Amino acid sequence: MLAIIAVMTVKDGSGPEFEAVAADLVAQVRANEEGTQFYQLTRSKSDPNVYKFMELYRDGDAAKAHAGTEYFKAAFAKMGPLLAAEPQIEYLDAI
Questions:
Q1: CA–CA separation, 14 vs 43, rounded Å?
Q2: Is 77 left (phi over 0), alpha (psi -120 to 50) or beta?
Q3: pLDDT 10s digits, 37-70
Q4: pTM score, whole prediction
Q5: Is the distance from CB of 70 to CB of 27 less than 8 angstroms?
């Protein structure tokens, strides 16, 4: 299995809009991606502008399929203007 942590830092005041876009994305992922074992948005308790997507995929092909969906591309197009920095992506081996 492949795990991914995607850290997203939003601009001040953009949290509610970011969360709305992310909620729709999470719903789409859960409804349509058999290879996605876990997909959850979290918000930092120490910095409310920092969010982390916690993702777990069956394999690398499932992660590629996720990134290639139209709803993923549309969500990230909406999220882009809300971000204060480039997303930080970490790839992990699930143990």
A1: 13
A2: alpha
A3: 999 999 999 999 999 999 999 999 999 999 999 9
A4: 0.93
A5: no
